[in-house]
Write a structure and sequence with these properties.
Layout (H helix, E strand, L loop, with lengths): L2 H14 E3 L4 E4 L2 E10 L7 E7 L2 H22 L11 H7 L7 E2 L2 H16 L9 H12 L11 H8 L7 E4 L4 E4 L12 H15 L5 E5 L2 E5 L8 E4 L12 E4 L3 E6 L4 E4 L2 E4 L13 E8 L2 H12 L3 H9 L5 E6 L4 E3 L1 H6 E2 L2
Helix pairs in contact: 2-7, 7-8
The structure holds adenosine monophosphate and magnesium ion.
């Protein structure tokens, strides 16, 4: 993302998250003020941290702690870059070919992979981190598009890539913190789960340190960490897929995640058709059902995995899937702009 786009997204993010309170609120120890900071360096997106603190330096300390941890997750979950002394997802893709080449990784990587495998099983494979050979192909065509116009991969290219996407070929040796692939051509792409996973970890880090009255937003992954010092919930808007400055929905949140997958986030055009970044494993093409799917629940990792999976399912399939989970609300924005929601999503909604 270039700096101009980053700043534009950051400004949009300001509009996305706001408290219903004005600038000041009275905390236990005196006046708490609301601050916002942007972090541009990680997960190829803009992170917004908004929170109440006694003063700016206290807030800056929280941001610094979050930023340090984010940097660690960013490096561990990176599929494109190597970092000296770090075994990350790219290291696995490059080297974990067969049991004899099992690679030792950080426990966070093991946890992310285990969680992602579990979500593959729970969603009938609609979110599949082993789809990397296919998503890499789409990615290479997308980045070689000029002025947003490009070519589409051929069916034979897609089909041969799809032969290396079996999640069961990813073997986790839990006791040794090692991972290997039984299919050496398999590639992991954790784009659908890593941001939510990191968001949840960061939020829990704040909670474990007794910090409250914060909202984190990593790209489309929002997590609220407690009410404002005055006891107000956060009003969090769902981003308009059409780039409008109004919200299709506004939710009042306290300790929840709101995660959105959208076809408008990363795409290019070929012959007048929009090719975005969320690939339906059944067709190997971008799923064309919705503009966006938003999930509200109490865990950003779950929200991230589910929003991607639901994006690749019909409404009926999606409603059935969601009914298997407790406390998960969904908003589907269809291609014609009409919206569908579950009852739980409506419960969180406030008048807009
Ligand atoms: P999200 O924005 O969370 O829906 O994740 C989309 C990203 O996940 C894409 O940019 C790809 O890197 C990757 N991806 C695309 N389709 C899938 C899929 N069906 N399962 C898992 N990851 C996917
Ligand atoms: Mg996702």
């Amino acid at each position: 993302m270039n700096m101009k786009v980053k700043i534009k997204s950051a400004l949009l993010a300001v509009l996305l998250v706001f408290s219903s309170l004005s600038i000041c609120a009275c905390g236990k120890g005196g006046k708490a003020e609301k601050y916002t900071e942007y972090i541009f360096d990680y997960f190829d997106t803009v992170t917004t941290v908004t929170g109440y603190a006694e003063n700016k330096s206290e807030f800056d300390k929280v941001v610094e702690t979050l930023s340090t941890k984010m940097k660690e997750y960013h490096r561990l979950f990176d599929i494109y870059n190597d970092y000296k002394g770090v075994n990350n997802i790219k290291t696995l893709n490059d080297k974990a070919h067969g049991e004899g080449n099992a690679v030792e990784v950080d426990i966070s990587v093991i946890e992310l992979l285990e969680f992602s495998k579990e979500m593959h099983a729970l969603t009938g494979g609609k979110v599949n981190i082993a789809l990397g050979s296919v998503t890499a192909l789409w990615h290479s065509y997308r980045v070689s598009a000029e002025d947003g116009e490009g070519e589409v991969p051929s069916e034979s290219e897609l089909l041969s890539a799809s032969e290396h996407c079996d999640i069961n070929d990813v073997v986790i040796l839990k006791d040794e913190n090692k991972v290997y692939f039984t299919d050496p051509a398999l590639k992991l792409d954790v784009g659908a789960t890593a941001k939510g996973f990191a968001t949840e970890k960061l939020a829990r880090m704040l909670e474990s340190e007794g910090i409250s009255g914060y909202v984190l937003s990593l790209g489309g992954n929002v997590r609220t960490v407690g009410r404002s010092p005055d006891g107000e919930k956060w009003n969090v808007g769902v981003e308009s897929p059409d780039g409008e400055e109004t919200y299709p929905a506004l939710l009042a949140l306290e300790r929840e995640a709101l995660v959105t997958s959208g076809s408008y986030r990363r795409f290019y055009v070929s012959d007048g058709v929009n090719y975005h970044h969320i690939i339906d494993p059944a067709t190997l093409f971008p799923s064309d059902r919705y503009k966006s799917v938003s999930v509200v629940c109490n865990d950003a990792s779950l929200g991230d995995a589910l929003s991607t999976a639901l994006f690749n399912m019909s409404l009926d399939e999606g409603r059935k899937l969601v009914s298997n989970f407790e406390g998960v609300g969904v908003l589907w924005i269809k291609n014609d702009g009409n919206m569908e929601t579950t009852a739980l999503f409506d419960k969180y909604s406030v008048k807009n």
